Amino acid sequence: MEIVLIGLNHLTAPVELRERVSFTQDEAQRAAEQLRSGGVLSETLVLSTCNRSELYGVPPESAADSAAAMERFFSSFHRIEPESLNGSMYRRHDREAVRHLFRVASGLDSMLLGEAEILGQVREAYRVAADSGATGPVLNRMFQGALEVGKRIRTETEIGKGPVSVAFAGVKLAERIFGKLRGHSALILGAGATGEQVAGHLRDRGISRLHVANRSAERAQELATRVGAEVVSWDALAAALEWPDLIVCSVASPEAVLSREILERAMARRSNRSLLLVDLGVPRNVEAGAAGLYNVYLYNLDDLSEIVEQNKRARQAEIPRAESIIDEHISKFEAWQASVETGVVLRQLRERVAAERDVFLRERLASMPQLSEEDRRRMAQLIDEMLDRILLEPAERLKGVSDLRRKLQNLEALRDLFRLDQGKL
Amino acid sequence: MNYLVLATAVCYAASLAGYVVFLNNARVGIGRLATLLLAAGIVLHYLALLDRSGSHTVPYDDLYGSLSLFAWLLAVTYLGLEFFHRQRAVGAFVLPVVLVVFVLSHAERKLVVTAPPVGGPLLALHITLNVWGYAAFTLSAVLSLIYLIQNQLLRHHRLGAVVWRFPALEVLERMSRSGVVVGLAMLLVGIAFGFLWMHRIWGQYWNGDPKEVITLVILGAYASYLWLGRTTAWRGARASALCVFNFLFVLFSYTVVNLYLSSFHRYF
């Protein structure tokens, strides 16, 4: 059985190209159907995310150069000249195709190392393909293996641990101080993209009250509507500092928005309830001296970037552990593959031997018309019993070989000696 | 050490290992296992206490027995706080104290040659509740100490891998306060029983024993912590520092006062 993968990703193709060759769910289903009905592949699965478009397939027996056929299909499906894909497409076969998928599912191949979404995307792509009957035993096994590996690496290594975006790092910091964010409140200063990102994370982490303040009230209202927050008037800002536990600033302003003095007064009104200030503005929105105030925790963009860098390095350090888990699962997959193949080879061997017996009996018994039907059946039965007896032991031994390499060598030898090649799975 | 003691120590040690692993990977299954092991340790420890106390209901006739009781009450209080606050992350810091005190208390068994003091349920309750109070204060001190460390790390942006695993500041503060509330309640009732008992024996409520004085100081110190911890100037790190400072009184009471100053509060 052969496994072929072709595709492109964020490492090999720019976003303009990736956009042109991405598949919607419908397109993915249609492509899979066309690939199978056109006889290019007998099993197929399309994996398309914003960072990759990949075709996984098992070609039918005796298909020559399936990868090229898949690439031709890929370019014609997207109505794109094959030349424009030159240099962007990669091809992987068998073991390397399996490794590629396992790495993708584990987030090792992601733009953001160890990100979690990809596992869900792989699961969804597999569900869609399996539901429409595009996959078969090989891809089923391979994708179930990938989901298993992805989950295992997520729990057993730290590849997905620690925030790797400043917005999320700020939110995680808040949890270090306040615990669960339910029951706490936050104020977002500045209605830009950063503010929105943080607001989204805060909502995800269950913050109870979210307020937005912006110089332009209109944009504050827009953001507030999108993330389900309330608007605080910019003029009432000083008074609004009294209640939030967390203040996130990303205001484009040449001078500090929150001076030490304003914050000192706010802290007095808050009776020194802890306040986390996450300053994502450049230049900084919070006067640096505010860090000295009692129960104030001030983090600026550099501090958070350093956290992010630390976490990225920590994730990098987990790659070897993840790779070794992947190796383990590739071996498991290959052992399964070999056992399936053993079954196929043994079946073919039996068929071959049975065919030889038929020919043999027909030739030899032609010159013995005196034999009755009963005798002929009896002789065929005897020969069958003998053949079974001869084949039984080697078959058991072949199945029992635990060394994968030797097993494959034996299978190859059997194929070769008995000329079983025409019958590949 | 008999088998009961050994089994208890093994349970506590395994529970500690579980809490440490839980702190590292936050897997609920491991955390539950640690809690179960702690509960098992507490049950075994209780049997060991019964075994040790012999004729008395509470093992207070030597320092080691009293320490064992202390370790047991510390473990019980922690387990209670863990359930109440649904927070397992501090187990890794509390269990070492339980384990060390327990092992210390059973490392040697002092033979009691003097006749046991006048017993009775009043005295037993007095001793148990007071030791419980001290155990709860110890728990609060450990939690406040973690608070102070975590607070320093967070304020000075020293965010190694540790900070992400420590419990949140507010959680530590809440748990520490609960510990003090439990401690104060136990101590108050315990003292009341003590006075009642003394009145029954000597016909007076107060005899000026240094232990009585220091215990009242401890009561005052922790009551002021509860009060100051809610005020503007003390909220947060300062209150936690006060909680750790107050614990020095407890240590003083448990060591110097017990062993050298008090005439009849020897080991509790």
Task: Describe the structure in your own words.
The complex is a heterodimer of chains A (425) and B (268). The N and C termini of chain A lie close together (5 Å). Chain A is an alpha/beta fold and 425 residues long. The mean pLDDT of chain A is 90. Chain A is 55% helix and 12% strand. With 268 residues, chain B is an all-alpha fold. Helices cover 75% and strands 0% of the residues of chain B. Chain B has eight helices and no strands. The longest helix of chain B is centred in the middle third of the chain and has 35 residues. Chain B starts with a helix and ends in a 7-residue tail after the last helix. The chains are: A alpha/beta (425), B mainly alpha (268). At the A-B interface, helix 7 and helix 12 of A face helix 5 and helix 6 of B.
Compact description:
The complex is a heterodimer of chains A (425) and B (268). Chain A has 425 residues and is α/β, with parallel strands linked by helices. Helices cover 55% and strands 12% of the residues of chain A.
What's the story with the biggest beta sheet of chain A?
6 strands, parallel
**Name given to the CATH architecture of the largest domain in chain A:** 2-Layer Sandwich
> What is the residue-averaged pLDDT of chain B?
85
How many structural units, i.e. domains of chain A?
Answer: 2
Helix run count of chain A: 15
CA gyration radius of chain A, whole angstroms: 32 Å
Q: Tell me the fraction of residues in β-strands of chain B, as a range.
A: under 5%
| Chains forming the largest contact | A-B, 25 and 23 residues
Spans of chain A of at least 5 consecutive residues whose pLDDT stays below 50 are none
Q: List unreliable stretches of 5+ residues of chain B.
A: none
Structural class of chain B: mainly alpha
In helices, the fraction of residues of chain A equals 55-70%
Say what oligomer this is: heterodimer
What is the mean pLDDT of chain A?
90
CATH superfamily of the largest domain in chain A: Glutamyl-tRNA reductase, N-terminal domain
Q: Give a quick account of the main beta sheet of chain B: strands, pairing sense, barrel closure.
A: none
The run of helices and strands of chain A is EHHEEHEHHHHEHEHEHEHEEHHHH
SSE pattern of chain B, N- to C-terminal = HHHHHHHH
Please give the radius of gyration of chain B in angstroms: 19 Å
